[in-house]
Each structure stands twice: as structure tokens, then as C-alpha cells.
Amino acid sequence: MKNIQKNTIPKHRKLHLIFRFLQGSKLYFAAAVAASLVSTILNALTPQIFRFSIDEVLSGSSGTMGSSGTMGSSGTSGSYLSSHLWVLALMIVAVAIASGIFTYISRTNTARAGENFAKNLRDTLFIHVQKLPMRWHDRNQTGDIIQRCTSDVEVIRGFVVTQLLEVFRTAFLVLTSFVMMFSMNVKLSCIVLLFVPVVVVYSTVFYRLIAKRFTTADEAEGELSTVVQENATGVRVVRAFGREQFEMERFDKKNNAFAKLWIRLGTLSGLYWGIGDLITGLQVIAVIIFGVVEAVNGSISVGEFVAFAAYNSTLVWPIRGLGRILSDMSKAGVSFERVDYIIRSQEEAYGKTDEKGGKEREHSGGKYDISFRHVSFGYEEGKDVLRDISFTVPEGSTFGILGGTGSGKSTVIQLLSRLYELEENRGSICIGGRAVKDIHIEELRRNIGMVLQEPFLYSRTIRENIAASVPGASLEEIRYAAQIACIDDAIMSFPDGYDTLVGERGVTLSGGQKQRIAIARMLLRKAPIMVFDDSLSAVDSQTDYRIRCALKEHMREATVILISHRVTSLMGADEILVLNQGKIEERGTHGELIRRNGIYRRIYEIQMSRDDRDMMGQDEKDKKNKKDKMSKEDKKKEDKMDGGIINGSI
After folding, report:
1. N or C end of the chain: which has fewer CB within 10 A?
2. Hey, how many other C-beta atoms are within 10 angstroms of the C-beta on 256?
């Protein structure tokens, strides 16, 4: 499996994604921005109150320093101070309370906007992943997909609702502060302004350096997630083969690589903040030195100097914070690209529209005969798994496919249900005379019930697992399907019966029990086409026989396709296809294939002489004997038994 491809998207595309997923939250976001700006304006008033206090109340004059360095005074000012100090204190408190209220409004609306944004993005990703073709899933690692749908979404959410809001607030704060500063002293303001491009330049350089490293770090995190996910999923296999040490070393290797990348990022970030401290220190020193000179020369009052110093300090951290914003922006940019790769991946084709451009056509629900015509297919270019195969499955019949590993038998079913799309000029597949590519995919799969070779069970109750195919099914319907699948007795023997929790992927059940529950789930759907992809491989021969007999009795009208490597599972089929390396080697009924003395006959003899004779009624001793040592009487009994099966006893 390959890693997900890199994808670079333009800035306007990122903005489009932001506004797209802010649907339903734009008012919250706008309210958060507006409240934050009001809070910034209120905070900008505080230095002006101090300026007024110093110049007009404490000094009682303009507040400028004379040559002696003392401030002027008057008796009136002391009386004024003692009479109105509470008014100034009340103004500061009122500004602080108002600023706190608007900050609260901003934060609460930010939280609402952020969670709605993340929810919309997660919903879109999850729904879209469900619609992506199997080829896409084959190319991409599960752990990396999970990370993109969770961790990367949180990174984007944090940037959009926190850092993006901070960008608006910082820009407005810088603008407001510079307006106030220029209104008090142009020379000092120009000195401060000289430091801004320096900060912007080195922050931009830092942004470009760190963006590449964030991309590498995210890829490493995806690989680490994949290792953890695979280990957790296959924990029984790992322990069964004693591979714990190997898995620990594998994890340690990925974990060390991931840690080293973040250490490098931390080093680079530390260098940025160190340079920032130096520039900030120089800026503050410059303001103090030139401010004192201006105050001594009488160009600025003491109150104005104090207020100017306060505005300068207010500017320091937002400008310093530009690096953090750019750092988060670079990480969010990487996450945007990773998420956008999923969003822009093409969904599987659902079906063609009609000639008038109307809605997608659905299967009419007529006949369910199946035909393959000159079908060739490969998962990789130039490596065909199926080579020019053609066959027909009449409606209501039972069709068997026999083949070894890699013969292409499971591929036949995946093409029928359009889990993989058949390429143009590579043959045709039809149901009821209509090409499957022209049938709406939901309708197509609704009419095909499948039990795959590796049954998947949810971490829920047995009842919920069976009812997954028909939500809302009654317990009676569920039990009826389970009885046909020969699993009802086993389920009822559990203490909690159908309410028994099966654990993750059905870990508390045996392989045969999981297969039979999966069969019951498919039977509950009552689809007109039923496919069993080696789905009885984990049950014993007698249970296999019982299940097939029950299916034959209760599902007479369904078109059934049986795929198996076990001959006994296919002997009752109306026609059997033998695949070998993607080609049709033989076809016919069980009796016809036995008489041809080909591959099917050889497989039959090997399997029947080894472990399937118990289904035929032979005792354990006869099952272990070889055919060449059997007596003529035993041989006749076996041949007679074979004839009964060939004549359709099942």
C-alpha cells in the first residue's frame, strides 16, 4: 500500500474551503470578530486614561519636563485630584468590565463557530470517504486516512477559529496603536515602525522553513498511526507468532523518526523566539532612550511618554505572536492540503444519467440473470487477474466458481457489485440484459447480497450485527435468518443471547460463528442475487452441508453464486466454473466435470480422500484410508453416494 500522494493547493482554494465549511457558523464567526475588535478598542483607551491622569490631574499643567527635570504643580491640581480620583478609577474599571464582556462574547462565539466548522468538515470527509472507489482505498493507508479525518481537522479548526481571529485582532490592534502613537509623537512612531518590516521579514523566512518540516512531520505521524492501527487490529496474529518484539522495534523506529522531526521543529522555533527577543529588546530600548530625550526637550509630555510606552508594549507581543500565527498557519496549510486531497478525490461512478439529463437510472427489478462477456481486468496496469472470461448465470439458478488462490474468483464478484469498475473496451457485465455500469450503484448493491471471505462484524451486539443489513428488523425476522444460517442455537446458548456483545471485529466469536452471522445478515436482506465468497471456509463439512440444504429450501427463487475452494460446497450447483490463473479451464455440472477427468476431478479426488468424507456419511476410520486401499464394496458405496449428490440430493 502506498502513502497518500502530496497535493499542493492555491491560497484561494484554502479560503474557499474555509467559507464552505463555515456554513451555518458565519454569524458566530462575525460576532466573534466584532466583539474582539470592540474589546481591542476598549483596551486602547486605558493608556489614554493614564495620560489624562498624569498630565491633567497629577501635573496640573501640560506635564512637560523642564530643564530641571521637575513637573509643574499647583494647589488646584491637588484639590482636583482628591476630588475626582474616584472618577478616573471608575473609568478604568468600567473599561475593564466592558472589555471582559466583549471578550467573553468573542470566546463563546468562537467556540460555537469552531465546533460547527469542525463538525461540517468531519461530516464531509466521512461521507466522501464512503463514496471513494476501492482502488483509492487500496492505494492509501488506513492510519493516515484516520489522521487526516481527525488530527488534521483539529489543526484546521484551531487555526480558523483561533489564529484567523487573532489575525483580525492583531491587525486592528496594530492599526489602532499606531494611530494613537502617531497622534502623540511622529518621530517615536517612525522609530517603532522601522522594526516592523524586520519582524515581518524574519517571520516570513521562518514560515517558509517550518512549512516543509511540518509536511514531513505530518507524514511521519500518519505512518506512526498506521503502525499503531495495524498492531491493534492484528494483536492476536502478533501474539500467536510471537512478533511482539518485532512490532515494538517497528514502532520504536517510526516513533524515533517522528520525535526527531519535532525536536528539529522545536529547535527552529526556539531560534525564532530567540531572535524575536533580541529585536523586541532593541525596540523597547530605542523607545525609552528617544522617548526620554523627547520628554526632556519638551516635545512630549510625561503622560504622553507613559501612554506611548504602554502602546509600544502592547505592540510587542502581537508582532512577536506573528511567528506563532505563521507557524500555526504553516501547519494548517499542510493539513489543508492533506484534507483537500480526500475532498478532491473522485467518487465512484453511481450510474449514468438518461438521455434527457434526468436523474440516474435505477434497475427496473425485472430479471436477474447475470452475464459476463469477454471480461478482462487487472488491479495493476499490465497485470490482468481475469483474462477474457465469459459465462451466464440464469435467474434462479445456483452457480459455482472453483479456483485456487489468485485465480480471480473473488474478482468476479467485486466487478459484479462494482466494488471495482470495469474499464472501457475490457468486456461487459450485465444483469437482466442491462450493463451494471448503467444501473444506479445503490440499487445494484441493494439487489446483491454478499458474504465476503473475511466477515466483518461491528463492535456491537449480535442482534445489531445481523440487523445492519435491514435496520429496524424484528427479532423474529433476525432469528429466522439465523436459523437458516445454522447459528440460532449457538446464539441462544450464550447468556445474553442476541444481545451478546461480540467485541471488536467479533473477537469473542469463532471464525465459523462469525461467518454464519455474516450469512444471516445477508439472508435478512432477501436480495434476489446472493453471493457467497468462500464464506463457509471456517465451518466444518457437516455444517457446510446443513447450511446449503437450508439455503436450497428457503431461497429457491434467488440467483445464487457460490465461490469456494472446497468441491463439496459446489456439487449441488446447476453449473460450476473452474478458474485457473484468470482463465476458464472447465465448466459444467458436477457429474460432467467428474467424467472429464480434468482439474476439477483431481481436486475432487484429493479433497474427498482427505477430509470431506464425513459429510458423505463415512466414519472417521474410512475417512483416513486412501482410495487405493479401499475394498470394492466400499468403493461401490462411495460411487453410489456420489451419484446421489450428482443427481441433486442437495
Report:
1. N
2. 10
Strands of 448-451's sheet, edge to edge? 448-451, 529-533, 559-564, 398-403, 575-580, 583-588
- Residues, the chain: 650
The rounded mean pLDDT for the chain is 78
What is the C-alpha separation between 544 and 606, in angstroms, rounded?
18
CATH class of 370-447+527-646: alpha beta
| 356-415 pLDDT tens trace | 333 444 444 447 889 999 999 988 887 889 999 999 999 988 999 998 888 888 899 889
Angle subtended by helix axes 151-158 and 75-131, to nearest 10? 150
Write out the DSSP string of 502-557.
Answer: --GGGTTS-HHHHHHHHHHHHHHHT-SEEEEESTTTTS-HHHHHHHHHHHHHH-TT
d(CA 346, CA 202): 40
Confidence of residue 323 (pLDDT cuts 50, 70, 90): low
Pick the CATH number of 11-344 from 1.10.730.10, 1.20.1560.10, 1.10.1740.10, 1.20.1250.20: 1.20.1560.10
| % of the chain residues with pLDDT over 90 | 12
Residue 116: which of 196, 31, 177 has the closest Cα?
31
Question: Taking the CA of residue 245 as centre, how many other CA atoms within 13 Å lie in the half-sphere pointing to its CB?
Answer: 1
Question: How does pLDDT run across 438-482, given as a tens digit for each residue?
Answer: 888 888 888 898 888 778 888 888 999 899 888 888 999 999 999
Residues of the chain with CATH 3.40.50.300: 370-447+527-646
50 within 8 A of 306, measured Cβ to Cβ: yes
Where does CATH 1.20.1560.10 sit in the chain?
A: 11-344
Please tell me whether the overall predicted TM-score, pTM, comes out greater than 0.85 for this model.
no
- Residue 71 above 60 pLDDT? no
* Rounded Cα–Cα distance for residues 179 and 184 (Å): 9
